[in-house]
Every structure is written in C-alpha cells, then in structure tokens.
Design brief:
2 domains; five-stranded mixed β-sheet; 10 strands; about 30% helix; elongated
Amino acid sequence: MITHSPKKIHIIGSNPNDFFDLTIEAVDILSKSNLIIYSKKFDLQYGKFFEKSNKKIFFEEDLAESETMLLKVIHKLFETYNSISHLINGDPLLFFENNEESYFQKKKISVEKVLGIPEIILWMNKKKLFLTNRNKNSSVSFFFPKTKNDCNKLLKIENFEKLIIKVSTQSVLEDIKKIFLKKLDKNLRYKVFGNARELKLNSTLKLDKSISNVYIILENA
C-alpha cells in the first residue's frame, strides 16, 4: 500500500472519440498517474495507449452506477493509490460548477483540472492571443454560462486579464449578444471564435451544425 506521498486527483478534459485530441500536458500527467479512470464509451485508442504504457485502469461503469457513488469509490481508492487521473467528456475548466472538484476538496484531496480544448489554444497562439504573459504574470479564467442569470454575472466579474467564455446554446448566445453589444465596459475588448475561425458577434450569428460552440475571448484593454 502506498502511504507517504500526498493524494492528488487530476480531472482531465478529453474527446472520447479521439485520443489524439489530448493535450501534451494531459498525456504527460496520464503517464505519471498511478491509476486512470475513464468510461467504456471512450474510443479503443485510449485502451491501446494505456496498455502499452502498462497503466492500471478502471472503467467508471465497473466502479459505480451513479456519479455520487463513483466519487465515493474513487475516494476509497486513495487508500491504495496516491495519484489518480479521471478522464471526463468535455472540459473541466469550462463548466460553471464541478461536483467532482468540490467533493475531493472537501475530502482534503488535492485537485488539478487539466485543460482539454487544444483547438482554441492553437487558434489563440496563431493569432498571438496567448493564454498567459509570463512577463506580466497574467492568467486566463474560464466561464461557461448556462442561464440568463449566469450571463449577467459577466457584468460583475472583476480582476481578470483574459476570460474565455464558452457558449453552447442559442438562448445563452442571445443573452451574451445583448450584454456585449449594449452593456459591456468600453475598457474591455473581445474576439469571437468558432469552428476554427474568427466570427463577428452580431444579430445574425447563430449556433447550427457548422458552429456548435462559440468561444469568446474577453480581456482588459
């Protein structure tokens, strides 16, 4: 039994259909973890990589039938393992609430959420909209509004340098438009990104089959 090192869970965002969408950071963390947990719904590429790496794995479906029970089982596994990586569908940094993060923080387990949206990082770097500026010690924050009330919180968010907002529904997009086009502080500037290209935030912008998500990069001028 491993007993001396601090306990840590890595919540890693991923694309279940393509292992090669994982960021280099995510692959590095997976290679160093004592245990990896993910769903049977993930592509076989994941299993092949873990098999070659001789990693210990468990499937979510074999551990528990609900999210609540799964978290309890993972917590129990920390009696044996120090470092556990949990692959999830989507991106842990973009969700407004994360039950898993809250659960393990209450259990005094260290939590690290790993960015899983490489396409927006690549796009930002190509446009020289870098996530961080080490000379200024700048940082990036993430926000995933789901309701009109969430959108209105954008008017109150302070002390950020770059804020990435993910919009996944048309109703939220319409609320965002009203805020950005009429109420947004003039000292803030933004760019809109979707489907690997820059977009204009105007009355005609809509989510459809070609644009399922819109990312807005907001920063202080």
